[in-house]
Amino acid sequence: MARWLTVGAAQLGGIARAETRAQVVDRLLALLHQAHAMGVELVVYPELALTTFFPRWFMTDQAEIDAFFERTMPGPATQRLFDEAARLKIGFCLGYAELVADAEGEGGRTRRYNTAILVDRAGTIVGRYRKIHLPGHAEHEPWRRFQHLEKRYFDVPEPGNEGGFKVWRAFDGLLGLCICNDRRWPETYRVMGLQGVEMVLLGYNTPVHNPPAPEHDTLSLFHNHLSMQAGAYQNGTWVVGVAKCGIEEGCEMIGGSAIIAPSGEIVAQCATQGDELAVARCDLDRCASYKTTTFNFAVHRQPQHYTLITDRKGAVPPD
Ligand code: CDV
User: Fold this and answer.
1) What is the rounded CA–CA span in Å between residue 179 and residue 202?
2) Whose CA is nearest to atom 3 of ligand 1?
3) What is the pLDDT of residue 161?
4) What pLDDT is attached to residue 140?
5) Which residues, 6 or more positions from 313, have their beta carbon under 8 angstroms from its beta carbon?
6) Residue 272 CA, ligand 1 centroid: distance in Å
7) Closest ligand 1 atom to the C-alpha of 136?
8) I need a labelling partner for 30 at 20 to 30 A (CA). Which of 38, 94, 103, 170 fits?
9) pTM summary value
10) Nearest C-alpha to atom 6 of ligand 1 is from which residue?
11) Is the CB of 136 under 6 A from ligand 1?
């Protein structure tokens, strides 16, 4: 038995701050058309794929910050992406900055999320994920070569309804979403693994240089693949990781977009630091070989020994 899903990892090169949404959507459409020519059914775009990675700048003018956010999805700039994808019968996953005015269930406050959506082949949004692990810092740290102010500009979603690592029945499989820094945390994959996930879609913006730990810089690409390959293997799932990369406003970001099998092997990978499509024909039934043997959770997990994972946040060494 096989359940084939042909997936395209639609990597983007840098997006300049001055680039308009219309120019970016043109680039997304160019990749979509390549994907169509290659028989792709699901295209995965990066994190915050509609603008430059704005958390690298300290800003205090809320109007300036909010200009990077989308208030509706699809919106005026993205409608033609939805329309064209639906016309071509291609689904997609898209990362963007989401502004929710008067957020329901959130005390009527305005919320700002780092969000990814899953859109089916008819152009309907079937899944939405709001980034949980927001890296970086909340205050201006001028000693850094560039800022990473995700903790300032985005809210962590509340658990419940829209918050959390969810898995959706879509594309004849079980698909989950996460975003960038989430991929480094085993909990991300395991929470989805416990819902039977068969393919995790994620986008990332990862600078080569890590200001608090420059000794990691030469390992950035290794750590990228290490995290995603481990998450795939340990949960018997496909993982599609897609970069926005290259030099963006003077900041170098890693590429290495990859499609990873449940074996942990990379089966397709981008080779450039620019707009590029990597394609793989993925058999979702390959997950079962891992999920029913080595990682048969129901048989082998011992959750009574894992309570510290949810009871404790930071490490506390023994006395
Ligand atoms: N966009 C990100 O979440 N980037 C982080 C960087 C700051 C380390 C990442 O984990 O790739």
Assistant:
1) 5
2) 181
3) 76
4) 98
5) none
6) 20
7) 7
8) 170
9) 0.98
10) 206
11) yes
Give the tokens for residue 93: 């996953």
Residues of the chain with pLDDT under 70: 103-107
Q: For the chain, give the longest Cα–Cα distance.
A: 63
Contact of 235 with 295, CB cutoff 8 Å = yes
Alpha-carbon distance of 278 to 242, in angstroms, equals 9
* Residue in 213, 217, 225, 313 with CA at minimum distance from that of residue 269: 225
Q: Which amino acid is present at 180?
A: C
Instruction: Give the model confidence (pLDDT) of 117-156 as tens digits.
Output: 999 999 999 999 999 999 999 999 999 999 999 999 999 9
Beta carbon of 135 within 6 Å of any ligand 1 atom: yes
Fold assignment, 4-311: Nitrilase/N-carbamoyl-D-aminoacid amidohydrolase (3.60.110)
Closest CA to 180 of 137, 92, 250, 116: 116
Dist. CA 319–CA 309, nearest whole Å: 19
Structure tokens at 232: 């795939």
Q: Where are the domains of the chain?
A: 4-311
pLDDT at site 70: 98
Encoded tokens for 297: 């959770």
Asked if residue 132 has its Cβ within 6 Å of ligand 1, the reply is: no
What is the pLDDT, as a whole number, of residue 103?
62
